[in-house]
Amino acid sequence: MDIKSPFTTPASGRSIPVTPAPVGPTLIDIDHVDFFYGASQALHDINLKIEEKKVTAFIGPSGCGKSTLLRCLNRMNDLIDGTRVANGQIKIRGIDIYDRSVDVIELRKRVGMVFQKSNPFPKSIYENITYGLRLQGRSSKSDLDAVVEKSLRGAALWDEVKDRLHTSGLGLSGGQQQRLCIARAIAVEPEVILMDEPCSALDPIATVKVEELIQELRTKFTIVIVTHNMQQAARCSDKTAFFYMGKLIEFADTRAIFMNPANAQTEAYVSGRFG
Amino acid sequence: MSPSTRHEFQSPPSAARRWESAALWLFRIATYVILICGAGVFGNIVVKGSKTVFTSTAPFINVAFFTEAPESLYVFEYQGQKREMGDREFRAFKTTHPEAKDIKAESYVYSAGGIFPCIVGTVLLVLGSMMIALTLGVSAAVYLSEYAKQGRAVTLIRLAILNLAGVPSIVFGLFGLGLFVIYLDWNVSLLAGWFTLAFMVLPVVITASEESLKAVPKGFREGSLALGATKWQTIRKNVLPYALPGILTSSILGIARVAGETAPIMFTAAYVVRDKLPWEGLTSVSDFFFQGVMALPYHIYVVSSKIPQNEYTERVQYGTAFVFLVIVALIATCSIVMRNKLRNRYKW
Questions:
Q1: Which of A2, A114, B252, B336 is 20 to 30 Å apart from A42, CA to CA?
Q2: Closest chain B residue to A117 measured between Cα atoms?
Q3: Residues of chain A found within 8 Å of residue B240, distances taken between Cβ atoms
Q4: pTM exceeds 0.95
């Protein structure tokens, strides 16, 4: 394929031709969603199609609604009293996840989540990973052992912890804890992994490790990542959505967003002029 | 410069300085007064009680006091000697010494023997009410803080629970008498006492449990739910175990305090005297729950207020009080040791 480098600045200055990445099948279809916390509207008419086995980044200043939208995707917002999706639908593989017939437990098994503040349970590393499996009634030791190894390898943590699987997960460093949480999430083999600012509490080296991990995970999972860090979005996502004041301002290939934003607000944000 | 001359770092006499030292002394004296009162109360009970509980000869502990039931004490003069004997001993003495058959003896109720049935009764009351209070209280706390939609109704319920903690114990006693003893027809029984004591300690258990549940980081709940756990699975596996140390400590301390109350059990569970121990003479399992028991606080009350006071009753009063203090202290220590163990297991 003959792709013209997006990094060459054309004479016109404003419109850089960016070759759009091939469009994959849509996994999550966010269709005209309005979301309320009590009386205040947090999301306004969001339209977004998240493609399968791609990394989609949500960026935007604090309070722009990106985390709220993320938490809509596995209905974690249900835990907060008075929240509701007022209009629109969120469909995963064509199924409206806010439909009455949807069991939120089944949804969350398919849509895993990694949180901003790493939250390993105060149990052993082994017990952390097997937590989700035991919930599903899986208890055979060989089965669990295999999943633990596979998940920890998948989260690039195996070599660091294989000799201390039965020590507390809280004894790990911050970056290791976050990767343990990722391992715990992938142990139940979800289709989607939601990451809510997974590196905001990590040092640069730990951040690089998690970002590398995201690159490996994209082959198996659909990843949606909320980040404050624009370089992170630029480095590790395929598509980027920019939110501002509860509205989706622009959604495009990551390169397009950073090299050639169509919207003036997007440009101002990605160039660091506000936020 | 002589040291007597004023220099700039010397404090100038001022009202603030005088108030400072006045306040300091007020606080200091208040603390000392409390210390002296506490030492007085404990010292009095320990000194007088230990005369009953300990002996000067091996095994240095008055075993009979712990293992026997209370009985009457007979004091009489025999062959110019003053003798003190418990009821059974006195009767045996009269059979072996026929000449003493018509001897004149002064009798003092409950002043001989021991307090074993009271210890048993109190332990049973504590254990039973603890189980009821923990089951009801922890469940209610889980509902209030994890399930219920926070709002005016829940706030009102919390307020009501806190108010319940301020209700005098005699009112709980009357409530137990009215509901359990009379209306439910449980009579004066262990069961009625358990429920009355449990209701009394519920506010403490609920409040402590809610606090402990709140102290568990939100991330544990979210992390568990995000893995596809149900709410109950999350609470059972990832919230309650970490809240348990706090719940148990506060609850057990609360129960130890309530176990010392006389008022709630005097109408509902306590007998002045009962010959049979709780496991004697049962014809069916249910009999166990529907029998009254003797209890330490009530025994102290009976011995101190229902019979004429004298040097012999004083021994029982202080001995019982001493044993009672030790038991309560033991329960408290156990709960603290247990908390520390559990805490070390779950740290975050």
A1: A114
A2: B219
A3: none
A4: no
* Of A217, A177, A230, A262, residue with least CA distance to A57: A230
How far is the C-alpha of B219 from the C-alpha of B239, rounded, in Å? Answer: 10
Task: Give buried/exposed letters for B329-347 (b at 16+ CB in 10 A, else e).
Answer: eebeeebeeebeebeeebe
pLDDT tens for each residue of chain B, 348 residues long:
555 677 878 777 788 888 999 999 999 999 999 999 999 999 999 998 888 888 777 778 888 788 888 888 888 887 777 878 888 888 888 888 877 777 778 888 887 888 888 888 998 998 899 899 999 999 999 999 999 888 899 999 999 999 988 899 999 999 999 999 989 989 888 999 999 999 999 999 999 999 999 999 999 999 999 998 999 999 999 999 999 888 888 888 888 888 788 888 888 888 887 878 888 877 888 888 888 888 888 888 888 887 777 878 888 888 889 998 888 888 888 888 888 887 777 666
Distance from CA of B247 to the nearest CA of A (A): 18
Which domains are assigned to chain B? 71-113 (no CATH), 116-345 (1.10.3720.10)
CB atoms within 10 A of CB B316: 27
Q: How far away is chain B from the Cα of A185, in angstroms, using its nearest Cα?
A: 7
Distance, in angstroms, between B135 CA and closest chain A CA? 24
| ipTM of predicted assembly, 2 dp | 0.85
> Distance between CA B62 and CA B50 in Å, rounded?
10
